[in-house]
Amino acid sequence: MRDEEFLAFVAERRGHLVRTAVLLTAGDRHLAEDLTQTTLTQLYVRWAAFRAARNPDAYVRRCLVNALIDEKRRPWHREQVTEEIPDSVSSFMPFEDADPDVRTEALYAGLRELPPRMRAVLVLRYFHDLNVEETAEALSCSGGTVKSQAARALTKLRRGMSARLSPTPLRPNGAFRA
């Protein structure tokens, strides 16, 4: 019975987990696949706890975020990139006029610059549309921490994307200049 339930869950939810992991890893699809696999392995082992969880979706998201944080804590897993970074867009464009693929890569690059916890706050709040309390519960922190982390992360993300996409720089507070 457990195996059938787990297989049905994987068939239904794996794609969604991978998409969330891609955002959490700022576009690193290989790491996202690894995190998803780690999460599913942990979920299989703890299937009874998952089934008993008050909010199973939050349980899975928390497992995924924990897998990311654990991965970043392992110094032996860190790799040194040896290849050069590919050429970026030659001319900057405003966000709304930018090619969707370019915007996506700018988003991933901006997310990559954020610490994993800030990234997790943004993904849970704005991709999963969780409110502050749900996000705080998923990350085992206070609502105030979620709010401050989200504000700081959005400012950093805006700056990073602006530098990549917009000819108009941001003000120091993260707002666009007119």
TrEMBL record:
Record domain RNA polymerase sigma-70 region: where: 16-76, 111-158
Pfam families cross-referenced by the UniProt entry: Sigma70_r2, Sigma70_r4
Organism superkingdom: Bacteria
Keywords in alphabetical order: DNA-binding, Sigma factor, Transcription, Transcription regulation
Family: Belongs to the sigma-70 factor family. ECF subfamily.
Cross-referenced NCBIfam families: SigE-fam_strep, sigma70-ECF
PANTHER family (UniProt xref): ECF RNA POLYMERASE SIGMA FACTOR SIGM, RNA POLYMERASE ECF-TYPE SIGMA FACTO
Protein name listed in UniProt: RNA polymerase sigma-70 factor (Sigma-E family)
Species of the source: Kineosporia succinea
